[in-house]
Amino acid sequence: MAIAEVTIIPIGTATTSLSAYVADMQRILARQQGVSYQLTSMSTIIEGPLEDVWKAIAALHEAPFLSGALRVSTSVKVDDRRDKASSSEQKLQSVRLKLQ
C-alpha cells in the first residue's frame, strides 16, 4: 500500500484564503475509489494501492482549475513499502512504541 502526502496550492486566486479549495478537494476525495485519506493542517494524506493514489492525486490537481484557478502547484511525497503492510497509523504507532 502506498501512502502519499499531497499539498495543492491554487495560484492567482481572488483571495488568500484557500479553505474553499481545500473543502472542494475533500469532497473529490470522498468520491474516489480504493483510497482512504486524512486532512491535516498543511496537507492531505492519501493511502491505498499506488494506481488509485495517483488517480486521486490527478483528480485533486484538476479541482482548483475547475474552481477558477489559473495555475496550480502540486507537491507529492510517496512512501510505497512493499515488504510488509504499512499505513499512516502503523508508522505513528511504531514511533509511539519507541517513545515509551
TrEMBL record:
What is this protein's record name?
Answer: MTH1187 family thiamine-binding protein
Give an example GO cellular component term for this record: cytosol
Q: Which Pfam families match?
A: Thiamine_BP
Q: Which family does it belong to?
A: Belongs to the UPF0045 family.
- Domain Thiamine-binding protein residue range list: 4-96
**What Gene3D superfamilies does the annotation carry?**
3.30.70.930
- Disordered, as annotated region: 80-100
